[in-house]
Design goal:
317 residues; 12 helices; alpha+beta; 3 domains; 5-stranded antiparallel sheet; Beta-Lactamase; 10 strands; Arc Repressor Mutant, subunit A
Amino acid sequence: MLAGHRLWLWSTGWAGCGQWDRSNYRKNDKFFFNYVSITATGWAATVGPRKIIVRSKFESPDWHNAVAGIISSTKAGTTASGLIAAIESVVDHEGTCLIAFHNDARPIVLHHTLEPAGRKHYLERYLAGPYLLDPLYQLAIRKKIPTLCRFRDQLPDRFRSSEYYRQYCERTHLLDEMDYLTQVSGQTTVVLVIGRRDRMFTKAELHRLGMIEPVVQSAIRKTWDEWVAKAGNPRGDDDVHQRLTRCFEKFGESVLTHRERQVSQLLLRGHSSKSIARELKIAPGTVMVHKRNLFGKLGISSQYELFSMLIDDLSRA
């Protein structure tokens, strides 16, 4: 090896590089160097001049023990716990939730790591109806879905200005979120949410989450099968969902036109006027007219008031 040349270290499924300098040298077939980058799979090397010590997160006992726990488990809760432990062994996070979304019933929470206060606010209130505004719910009930996505990449253009975001998402204090989606039937998609509060996921962490996707997808299916075997009715309360959906679709029906109701629904989900125009294939100016008219008919002046009216209606439903 010559000084100034780049060293490539190859191992199973991994490649990384370190820049050699004049203090790098070789002795008895062992390389010594002063710098190496941390790689996507969690490999790292000591800063020298010392002997290279390279370890992968996938070689850790925690990873293998967690995977063994998933394989040996026969209960949905135990399988889900093993899955979360496996993910924790390769990527740090501040909370998870495994939730089944149905296109004809309310969502069901299969497993979560939220504290009791967080469960009451973020799950119980969410399941009371506002899940209808969740972009993740809208994504999960589509016919074609991604199997792994970053939540922020799936949002309507004004979602962070919506009242749903302020009332539910912002209060979770999640800075970043990755989601695994698994279609377990024609009506149901199970989603594993992985949240991060203190910092964004790095490219290396995103790569590792992608690498473990086959394990995660299999564990999600296993959890769902075990849940169904125990619960019997996998879709939960269909009647409540139908009432909530009907309430949302007919929101403002007594005073609003069909088009104004469509505009109000997209506003509530976080779409801008331009985005609504694209969705409904009308001019942005026409959207503004509909927005002004529906606000006037409902006697409101802000999206906060629009959101509050919807929540009141959902509560009564």
